[in-house]
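Need a sequence for this fold. Nothing fancy.
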């Protein structure tokens, strides 16, 4: 029977990225009903001390390769990216995001877009994400021994999440400034450590927060340019059940943990062109962000005893991105929009972990670039209510050759609907719903790959992959226009 799992993205007080693999205590001591047949785990004192000696000897060279990568699950954008930055633009499947509009989140993709609406405004978004993905195991074997681990899969490797985002902008004459706080990356996958693919990951978490300041300048009636500086804080923890050594009684199970954090800086550039009254074209660039997670590696025995601890660091580059969008108001009722976006996920070819006092570990990722295409339409029902819908297709950076349980990503289709209702001249609310149809994909991992030598083999299928997203936003304009005085008519 497939095991259940859970995942969570936390946008609360803990800021950063947290990536964890959790080991099951059922895998230590006497053989568990789901443990590997033929491993012959023992529990006597002499046997335990023999395991400890092997753990101390093998841990530094083994724990790092196993824990080198913390991936994400069925993210709502390619790789481990998150696209839930705006309820307004979600309604069109993010068509027109860089071309300006009433949603303030456009500044995230194109800093020049903050000039679209004059005056002082603030906006808060919350997106509730309900993803689903199953992993059906065809065959799995244990490392070293090659023991058959059965076909215990995972019925749902991801779970629901709430993702917040906040924006503020002020535009006057030729200038505009803005600030955004959101989570461009993050996700969680969780599978119990008695499932057949446990040596390729049990639990992983990713948290991220990005704060960006923007400024824009109106060069003339048809061109606005803008730029921004972003600060990204990341905190990471990795913990996973693994093989720490081999004794005469067989392989020894233990756990390892990596902790680290870092702050990275990036920038954004953008331009907004007015091609005709009511028609804009926007182009935005977000730079890559280099991070060097610095912390420590800890190795634990099956009993929880800390066997070793030494400093380590891991380099990670968050990808750069180019977004191009258009928005055209055909008449007072109808507006059409579109977006093409490229993300440089192919820059993540390798992940290198450098522990002091142990061998360097290099993990090949082999990702390709990600692409996103969307088109949308909006209808102004009446002066207070606007309705919109959009369709998108996303090409994932993850292919069948490199897919793993920690990142069971695949190509997907987005279908969205949304609405904006103006309660007053100052206060408006956005609502949006999206269903993402994920394509099925295969997992084919072999110990012939040096990175998988201590993980065994895994042949599986990712199925029933989809995401439901509900988003709501409130937007407030502080300096609403004063009502026009009614002229008195006298006879």
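Here you go.
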């Amino acid at each position: 029977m497939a095991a259940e799992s859970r995942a969570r993205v936390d946008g609360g007080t803990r800021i950063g990225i947290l990536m964890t693999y959790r080991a099951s205590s059922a895998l230590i001591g006497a053989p568990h009903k789901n443990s590997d047949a033929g491993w012959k785990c023992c529990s006597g004192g002499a046997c335990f001390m023999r395991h400890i000696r092997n753990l101390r000897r093998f841990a530094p060279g083994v724990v790092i390769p196993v824990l080198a990568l913390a991936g994400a699950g069925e993210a709502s954008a390619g790789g481990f990216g998150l696209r839930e930055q705006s309820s307004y633009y979600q309604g069109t499947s993010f068509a027109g995001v860089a071309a300006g509009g009433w949603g303030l989140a456009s500044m995230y993709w194109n800093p020049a877009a903050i000039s679209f609406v004059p005056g002082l405004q603030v906006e808060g978004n919350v997106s509730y994400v309900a993803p689903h993905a199953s992993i059906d195991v065809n065959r799995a074997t244990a490392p070293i021994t090659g023991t058959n681990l059965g076909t215990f899969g995972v019925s749902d490797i991801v779970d629901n999440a709430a993702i917040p985002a906040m924006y503020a902008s002020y535009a006057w004459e030729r200038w505009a400034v803005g600030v955004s706080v959101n989570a461009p990356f993050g996700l969680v996958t969780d599978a119990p450590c008695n499932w057949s693919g446990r040596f390729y990951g049990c639990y992983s978490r990713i948290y991220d927060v990005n704060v960006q300041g923007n400024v824009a300048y109106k060069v003339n009636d048809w061109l606005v340019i803008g730029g921004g500086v972003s600060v990204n804080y990341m905190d990471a923890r990795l913990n996973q059940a693994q093989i720490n050594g081999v004794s005469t009684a067989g392989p020894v199970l233990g756990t390892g943990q990596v902790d680290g954090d870092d702050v990275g800086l990036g920038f954004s550039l953008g331009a907004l062109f007015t091609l005709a009254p009511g028609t804009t074209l926007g182009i935005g660039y977000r730079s890559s962000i280099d991070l060097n997670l610095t912390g420590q590696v800890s190795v634990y025995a099956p009993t929880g005893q800390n066997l070793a601890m030494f400093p380590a660091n891991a380099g990670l580059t968050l990808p750069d991105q180019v977004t191009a969008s258009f928005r055209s108001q055909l008449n007072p009722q109808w507006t059409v929009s579109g977006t093409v976006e490229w993300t440089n996920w192919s820059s993540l070819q390798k992940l290198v972990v450098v522990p002091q006092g142990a061998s360097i570990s290099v993990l090949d990722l082999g990702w390709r670039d990600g692409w996103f295409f969307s088109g949308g339409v909006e209808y102004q029902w009446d002066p207070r209510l606007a309705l919109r819908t959009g369709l998108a297709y996303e090409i994932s950076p993850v292919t069948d050759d490199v897919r793993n349980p920690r990142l069971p990503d695949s190509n997907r289709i987005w279908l969205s609907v949304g609405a904006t209702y103006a309660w007053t001249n100052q206060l408006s609310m956005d609502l949006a719903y999206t269903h993402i149809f994920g394509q099925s994909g295969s997992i084919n991992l072999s110990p012939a790959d040096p990175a998988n030598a201590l993980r065994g083999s895994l042949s599986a299928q990712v199925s029933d992959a989809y995401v439901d997203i509900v988003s709501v936003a409130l937007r407030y304009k502080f300096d609403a226009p004063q009502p026009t005085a009614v002229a008195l008519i006298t006879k």
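For context: The longest strand covers residues 250-276.
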